[in-house]
Design brief:
- It is a single chain.
- By secondary structure, the protein is an alpha+beta fold.
- It has a domain of about 280 residues: Jelly Rolls.
- About 15% of the residues lie in helices and about 30% in strands.
- The protein has five helices and 22 strands.
- The strands form four sheets. Strands 3, 7, 12, 14, 15, 16, 18, 19, 21 and 22 form a ten-stranded mixed beta sheet that branches. The protein has a seven-stranded antiparallel beta sheet with strand order 11-10-9-8-17-6-20, with helices on one face.
- A hairpin with a 5-residue loop joins strand 1 and strand 2.
- The radius of gyration is 24 Å and the shape is globular.
- The termini are far apart.
- Bound molecules: 2-acetamido-2-deoxy-beta-D-glucopyranose (NAG).
- This is Neprosin PEP catalytic domain-containing protein.
- Pfam families: Neprosin, Neprosin_AP.
- Keywords: Signal.
């Protein structure tokens, strides 16, 4: 009896021991497989650098030969002849280089804004600056595959009658928009702030959306602006970013140069790099101008930063609807609200102030324009506004001679009227 009991005990311990060993070796195998996968991804993303610049914010900027950039990993781009400049620039009102001193008053021109890494060097000609992806950047993503991608459909559908779409994704917007025509681009000058983010997995951004198609599974979108995203970048800095998708944020597209698609031609501006300086409450205001337009000749979608810096283009073949034209343009802010228990996040949008606060306090978009089929910049006709919860984040439009069509937007998120 005693023997039997002993042996049962031994067996139990033995099995338990084997279980422990197999659990720990399984997790070791899992960890090393993940490390392998992360390293493979880093090798794919980080191209051979001709020169490397250490940015004061901890970023590493790699100057990569222009023909060696991530875009050319795309099978359709293997034989693509890179275009160094667009055939046409959109023309029209509010060309900043033609503004009088009086008109410039109260707001700094975009060219006074730089990127932090410029303090420590420049990229040579025939290279483009790329923010190096570090192991930690990838490890913060839910999976290697999701790194550099938006997690949810990230688009405001004005007049949406479906509250589920809003509460499911937790994305909140305060935007101005136009629809009902064919658009060939958009422009805006965007006030730059550093909104506070409550949770690591939340973000706050201010951008232009160039949209094609219905709001179904095949939505096409080109996006550019500034964002604060601790998840994507590992800090709270305000960064210049772009995004694109041709299937409503599912399998195609990414931020910046984190997948092949966007072809960069500029050696001065790095996608995803920190912008400096930032506007301060009742103090200096800074803004950036962004233009996105479709080259009437080749059909590619180009992006310009300020009035001279042509960053590059999204080749037309990446898209379905946008291969022809855009059907909607949106301008404004978006935050993610990921608080549990139905409480609202205190993540700020814009400056964190409501629109009625006005200049120097609330964030703005000014000189918002669309590009028409003749490649002319025009004032937006029938500008609408949309916000899911105006007690949390709001938007207010206006127009005058200097700022053309403009709006103030944003808010603090959680407050007594937005519990
Ligand atoms: C970013 O801001 C949050 C609070 O808003 C803070 O908890 C966190 O430490 C900050 N992260 C960094 C890297 O500064």
């Amino acid at each position: 009896m005693g023997y039997c009991c002993c042996s049962t005990m031994a067996l139990v311990f033995c099995i338990w021991g084997m279980f422990l060993i197999s659990v720990s070796s399984a997790s070791r195998v899992g960890a090393s497989r993940q490390k392998l996968e992360v390293n493979k991804h880093l090798n794919r993303l980080n191209k051979h650098a001709v020169k490397t610049i250490q940015s004061p914010d901890g970023d590493i900027i790699d100057c990569v030969h222009i023909s060696n950039q991530p875009a050319f990993d795309h099978p359709f781009l293997k034989d693509h002849k890179i275009q160094m400049r667009p055939n046409f620039h959109p023309e029209g009102l509010f060309d900043e280089s033609k503004l009088s001193e009086k008109q410039k008053e109260g707001s700094n021109a975009a060219n006074s804004i730089t990127q932090l890494w410029h303090a420590n060097g420049k990229c040579p000609e025939d290279t483009i600056p790329i923010r190096r992806t570090k192991e930690d950047d990838v490890l913060r993503a839910s999976s290697v595959k999701r790194y550099g991608r938006k997690k949810h459909r990230s688009i405001a559908k004005p007049r949406s009658a479906d509250p589920d779409i809003i509460s499911q994704s937790g994305h909140q917007h305060a935007i101005a928009y136009v629809e009902g025509d064919k658009y060939y681009g958009a422009k805006a000058t965007i006030n730059v702030w550093e909104p506070k983010i409550q949770q690591l997995n939340e973000f706050s951004l201010s951008q232009i959306w160039v949209l094609g198609g219905s709001f179904g599974q095949d939505l096409n979108s080109i996006e550019a602006g500034w964002q604060v995203s601790p998840d994507l970048y590992g800090d709270n800095n305000t960064r210049l970013f772009t995004y694109w998708t041709s299937d409503a944020y599912q399998a195609t597209g990414c931020y910046n140069l984190l997948c092949s698609g966007f072809i960069q031609v500029n050696n001065n501006i790095a996608m995803g790099a920190s912008i400096s300086p930032i506007s301060e409450y009742q103090n200096s205001q800074y803004d950036i101008s962004i233009t996105i337009w479709k080259d009437p000749k080749e059909g590619h979608w180009w992006m310009r930063f300020g009035n001279e810096l042509v960053l590059g283009y999204w080749p037309s073949f990446l898209f379905s609807y946008l291969a022809d034209s855009a059907s909607m343009i949106e301008w404004g802010g978006e935050v993610v609200n990921s608080e549990p228990n139905g409480e609202h996040t205190s993540t700020q949008m814009g400056s964190g102030q409501f629109p009625e606060q006005g200049f120097g306090k609330a964030s703005y978009f000014r000189n918002i324009q669309v590009v028409d089929s003749s490649n002319n910049l025009k004032s937006p006709k029938g500008l609408g506004t949309f916000t899911e919860q105006s007690n949390c984040y709001d938007v207010e439009t206006g127009s005058n001679d200097n700022w053309g069509h403009y709006f103030y937007y944003g808010g603090p998120g959680k407050n007594p009227n937005c519990p």
